């Protein structure tokens, strides 16, 4: 059960991270395609739109899965240091996302840089946790 919940965190976090990568791909490649490639643009848009639209919900699902995962592991096993580091990283990531959404109303600023930076740190935190558990 704990492993399943851990992978739920990885999957929901991964889908939330797609937001960044899909927007970059769109900005630097897809949007610059000629009109003859309209089919590619349309197909990419159909993939990108739901990911961007539901980005915050995937992040919140990752936080929910983290909470359940943490409680399950805490009540049944032991808490690992790398797990605590990954959990804190995800909590900081979600708090920054909520701050940007609720307080800054999506306006760009330092919070967005930090949110993205912590999102990439999260990759290392999760990897370390998986390798060291």
Automatic annotation (TrEMBL):
Keywords: Membrane, Transmembrane, Transmembrane helix
TM ranges: 6-22, 57-75, 81-101, 113-131
Designated name of the protein: Uncharacterized protein
């Amino acid at each position: 059960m704990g492993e399943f919940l851990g992978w739920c965190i990885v999957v929901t976090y991964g889908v939330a991270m797609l937001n960044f990568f899909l927007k970059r791909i769109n900005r630097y490649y897809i949007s610059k395609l000629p009109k003859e490639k309209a089919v590619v643009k349309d197909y990419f848009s159909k993939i990108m739109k739901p990911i961007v639209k539901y980005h915050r919900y995937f992040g919140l699902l990752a936080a929910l899965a983290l909470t359940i995962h943490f409680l399950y592991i805490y009540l049944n096993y032991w808490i690992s240091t790398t797990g605590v580091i990954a959990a804190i990283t995800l909590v900081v990531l979600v708090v920054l996302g909520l701050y940007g959404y609720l307080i800054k109303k999506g306006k760009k600023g330092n919070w967005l840089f930090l949110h993205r930076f912590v999102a990439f740190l999260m990759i290392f935190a999760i990897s370390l946790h998986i390798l060291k558990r």
